Amino acid sequence: MSYVAVAEVRVKPEHMDAACAAVLGIVPQTRAEPGCETFLIHRAADGSPRLFLYERWRDAAAFETHHAQEYTRAVYRRYETWLAEPPIITFLDDLADQEPA
């Protein structure tokens, strides 16, 4: 079973372009990580300064390894002053992997 996380990242409006560039800058390395199955980034369609990340990893260890990478940590350090509030991270279970009731 994969390890899936969705993050909503609320950015201060004046930092939105820089925040987008920073996270887009790590997409190639992230997708090349051995445990990465899917790594997608979306911007809110309503124009609000929000990013949404959909991440699917082989397992929790792969997710944790990604977050320990220097390029990921560098983005987090830059986000410290750019974020309007802490990200909201939701972990998901795939219903197809569950037994029927």
Automatic annotation (TrEMBL):
Keywords: Monooxygenase, Oxidoreductase. It comes from the Bacteria. Residues 3-91 form the ABM domain. One of its GO terms (molecular function) is monooxygenase activity. InterPro entries: ABM_dom, AI-2_Isomerase_LsrG, Dimeric_a/b-barrel. It holds the Pfam family ABM. PANTHER family: ABM DOMAIN-CONTAINING PROTEIN, QUINOL MONOOXYGENASE YGIN-RELATED. This is Antibiotic biosynthesis monooxygenase. It comes from Methylobacterium haplocladii. The lineage of its organism: Bacteria, Pseudomonadati, Pseudomonadota, Alphaproteobacteria, Hyphomicrobiales.
